[in-house]
Structures are given as structure tokens and as C-alpha cells.
Amino acid sequence: MDRARLAALHGVDVTYEPAPGQEVEVSEETVVAVLAALGVDASTPHAVRDALAAHELRTAHRLLAPCTVLRSGQPLTGLPEGTEISVETAAGDRLAAVPREPGRYVLRAAAPDGRTARGDLVVAPQRIAGPPQRSFGFMAQLYSTLSDRSWGMGDLGDLAEIAAWSGRALGAGFVQINPLHAAVPGHPTDPSPYRPSSRRFPDPVYLRIEEVPEYAYLSRDARAQAGRLLAKAAALRDNVLLKDMLIDRDAVWELKAQALELLRQVPLSPGRRAAYADFLAAQGQALDDHATWSTLAELHGPDWQKWPAGLQNPRSAQVARLRSRHLERVDFHCWLTWLTDSQLATAQRAARDAGMPIGVVHDLAVGVHPAGSDAWSMQDVLARGMSTGAPPDAFNARGQDWGLPPWRPDALAATGYAPYRDLIARMLRHAGGLRIDHVMGLFRLWWVPEGRPPTEGTYVRYDADAMLGLLALEAYEAGAVVIGEDLGTVEPGVRRQLADRGILGTSVLWFERNYDGEHADRRPLRPNAWREACLATATTHDLPSTAARLTGEHVELRHRLGLLTRPLEEEQAEDAAEVAEWIALLGRLGLLPEGAADEEAVVRAVHRFLAATPARMIGVWLPDAVGDRRPQNLPGTWDQYPNWRLPVADPDGKALTLEQLAASRRLHALAEEVRRALSPDGEP
What we know:
Blueprint (H helix, E strand, L loop, with lengths): L1 H8 L5 E5 L2 E4 L2 H10 L7 H17 L5 E5 L12 E5 L5 E2 L7 E8 L5 E9 L10 E6 L15 H15 L3 E4 L3 E2 L15 E5 L17 H22 L7 H16 L5 H31 L16 H9 L1 H27 L5 E6 L8 H5 L8 E5 L9 E2 L7 H6 L3 H10 L5 E4 L7 E6 L8 E4 L2 H15 L2 E4 L9 H7 L4 E4 L25 E4 L8 H6 L1 H8 L7 H21 L10 H14 L4 E5 L36 H6 L1 H14 L6
Parallel strand pairs: 3-7, 8-9, 8-21, 9-12, 12-15, 15-18, 19-20, 20-21
Antiparallel strand pairs: 1-2, 4-5, 4-6, 6-7, 10-11, 13-14, 13-16, 16-17
Helix pairs in contact: 1-3, 4-9, 5-6, 7-9, 12-13, 18-20
GO biological process, one term: carbohydrate metabolic process
Pfam family, one: Glyco_hydro_77
Keywords: Carbohydrate metabolism, Glycosyltransferase, Transferase
């Protein structure tokens, strides 16, 4: 009983529900291990009693938390009666009460018993402003959208082109892309954008080399070397586009790294030098840490846990000496980040110049690689020996282990949520919107102790009010929309809280059925039953393309790879029945006048349906627009399927360039249908 009470005080669940009404008790070993990762000894009854006493003592003496997060208009509570407070603004003005204006403040309190305290005060807006108007946009994996100018994978120059083209020619309101987080280097590099080295800094592999200003000023010899690299890059591009080879991120980076070494030799102009100095000053310690890790990774390998002991601590004297010894290389990595940040800014500017009301929507992965830059530099706020994942459920009886160390909620709170606030602010630097992968992680995460299967984990809870409030303030100040990926197992009340904050959810056509209520019948939801506060789409990067769904090819693919848990015929019959239900509904609604025999027409009808919902944003999966059959990622596979390495292709699997996408009759027809459906007067 005492251990359960101690666990509850630290947000650790001792039971969970894999299905409504089905409660599973978490093992004592798991609870003890998770509490230990939070710095709490619960190994014996005596240790539990001591931990409870220590917690009560801390709570009794604490006057203010390091960071208090309130919504605008919310009163400050929890202080002893008679406590005097004052609030200091960023300009140094003193206020006698909590302001309503969203922002960051300093809060001071003096209790009648003589205790005084100082802490941060964050006043969050009541709601994030949603999209200024209903609009559609393309959802794309940037690496997969090669142009005739890219070096074997899509880059930031291509992102600017996608935004400018789709905004101006098609009336798109946004373009949503995969995370551009810095990857962990390796041979081969993990291609998943959702398992990065750092979420705080972008990956320079996405740089468009020729658009770095110093490229124009290469010396004659350097320009000749660059020309040879361009020829090799063209060969890489042709391998993907003409020879059906996979995107080779490592080969692309090898060429770009050589080109960047050439560009490094060109001195920055005075104006560029001043801009770089400003960038370094603004990025501070976080960038210095990332650049130092990148340098150490070149010297000792990409896994900091295998480095010499003195280098495993980012604040050690050994790291400081090595940083000084390799200052030029550290600065090189800072410079790469600056160049990438500059091209990100250019892409968002191109989107807004094209008339997009939102522009680029960036994606925030749920965590970071345990061997990477963020895990090294933020060891104090990440839980050692723990990995995030998902519990067993109806779709995966063995649960999931994502191999990502979770935030420690206690450590985050102790820092005033500074690492989290910094992360969100960095993600929104050049964004019109932000997608939060597994947004339920702002409420709770499934922690799996190292060495144990995902079935032996438990949920650890976070201060959702603080996490949502800080997110809302950063989005408010950036003028950005926020989309939560709320698919899968979602705790009751989460979607309501997200909507109350103005955070959009994600609604995928095939999952929108009548599941709730006493008379749930699992029938497809009609358009008027969909929620307004969402991004509505037909599919995502983890799901089959619409063409594959309609034809059942995705079931055959999973069968070939041994991923089915039931006989093929049974899976095919169920899948065909579900698709038939949706097609029948499209027909009854008059959205499929061409008939179900025309696959392209059905894809258009699916998107007419999405536009008929009240959803504020309609996402068109870019491969859907050209009939691509292949998923970008097939969950449950590693080397059995080329996850994250496929270019966008036509129905026959032939890779398409960005230029071919822009000229595609099929794509233009689909975009015109969606735009017409969204138009108040029905005109394209």
C-alpha cells in the first residue's frame, strides 16, 4: 500500500487498462525500477517509508515551484493564507497581481511564516489560435521528393519549391513534412526520422549546397572539385530515379560533407559574419553542446556511452579541454547548423510569399536516440535505463519498445521545464505549424525498464497542464498552429483537453468509425459527425497508401513479409469488407459519380469526403496524389522492408521527380477537387 502511494506521488501507475474495463496490475519489480529511474528508492519497506517522509518534508517546506504555469485569467492558488506576491515583467516592471497577458514573468512570494521564494511564472493563452481558414495541404516525406537539382534525396531547396508551387499553383495552405531532426551518424545511418540524435537542431544532410551564398565565391580549383561532386550527386539521383535504387542517405551526406568542406574555405562577408555571430549568441550552450558531441562522435564513434569515461559527462574537464583543442571543428558543426537554419527560414518565407496561410508544418518526434547528442547533453532530464513504448493492446499483444529515453517529469519540473520550452521554441523558429508525434506523451508515457519486454512496463504521468500551457505560449508567440497525433490508445479526456487548448487532433479516414457509446456499431462516420478541430487525412507515413488500401495490396505485402497474425484469406476478407463499407458510403453521399471501378476516381472521392467534413485542415498524402502503392514505413519491419528510403513513385513504382509531380495530371485533378470542395462557392 505504501509503495502504491509513493508511486502515485511520483506519477507512476501501478495498474493499466489494455482495453476498456480490463485492468492489469503492474509488477512490483517494474514499479521499483521506474521509481529508481526517478531517483526514488522503493526497494524495501523501510526505503519506501523514508522516501514518503522525504517527499512530505519537501512538499511542506516548498512555497513555490520552480515554474508555475497558469492559463490567462486563472488565479494563483495553493499558497498559505496571507502570502504576499509580486510579479516582475521582462521589462522589470513590478505588478501586484498575476497578469492576464500571456508571457513569461518572475513570481515572488513572501509567506507569513517568513518563507520567501522566487520562481518563473508562465501565463499561457486560453487557446491557441487555429488555422485562419480551412485549407488543404500536402503531407510529404521530404527526403522522398527528389527534384532534378537535388543530390539523391529531397532537400530544403525542394521544400521551398514544393511550398511555392503548391501555394501559388494549387492554392494549398500548408505543407507538412517529416521531422528534419539531426540523425545519429553511422554506417549505415538509421534512416528513421523518428529516432534522431537531436530534436533541437536540424540535419545538414537536407542542405541545398548550391544555395549556400559562399558557393558563388569558390576558388577556381574548389569550383572544379565541386563540379566533380555535382557529377557524382547526379549519378546518385539517377540511381534512384532511373535505376530503381533506394535513397542512400549516407552516400548523399558523404558528397555534401566534401562540398561543405570546400565552402568552409570561403570567408564570410562582414554581414554574413555578423549574422553568424548573432546566431551563435542566440543558440548558446545548447548549440555548443550539439557541436561538441558531433566533434566527439567523429573522434570516438557515434555512441557516447562507449566513449572514454571522462567524455561521457558533457560538463567534465576532459570535454572542456577537448573542445578547446578542436575548436575549429566544433565551430564547423555550429556553422552547419546555421546554414541549415537559414535554409529552413527561406522555405517558410517561400511558403508565406506563395500565399499559404500556414506554410511549413514541422514534425516533432516523440523522443531521441539514446546514443545521440540530446541524450548526451541532457542526461539530467532523461530517465536512464528506461525506454518509451506502448503497452500490449488489441493490435499488438507484445507491446512496443521504441528505444527512446523519456523525459523525467521530476527533473523537468525542477528546471522550470527549460529543456522542453527550449525544444518547442526551436521547432517553431521557422514554422507555421507543428505536429506533435504521439501527443499523448504530454500526459503520460509507457516506460519500459532496460532488459525487459514492453509487456513489463508502466505508465508515468506528466504535468499535462504545464506541458500544454508551455506549448500553447510558444505557439501563441510564433503565430503557429499545433496538431497532435492522437491515434491509437488515447486515455479518456485527452482529446477534450487538447481541443480545449486549441490543439488540433488527427483524424484518419479508415479509423473514423462509430466506436463510442452504448449503441456503437463500427459503421463509418458520416462527414458531419467528424470533429472540426483536426487535420483530416486518408493516410499517414505509417499506413498504406490509399491506392494500396483500395486494392488490398497492403495485406498482400504484409503477408509476404510474414506480418499477418491470421490466415491471408481471413485478413483479405475483413479488409475488403471495410473498404466496401466506405465505398458504399461515398456512393450514398453522391461523392462517387464515376463509379467504384475507377481507382483514381475513388481516391478523388475519398478526398471529396474529407473536404465535406468540418475539419480545419485537409491533408493530402503526396504519394496518394500520384497513385503510389508503397508505404514509406511499414511498422514491425526493420531490414525486411526499405523503410524511409523510397522516392515518391507512380502506380507502377517508377520514381517521380518533383518536376514530374508538379506536372502530373492526376495530382492536379485531385487538388482541384479538394480546392473546389473547400471553396464556399464551389469554384476551384
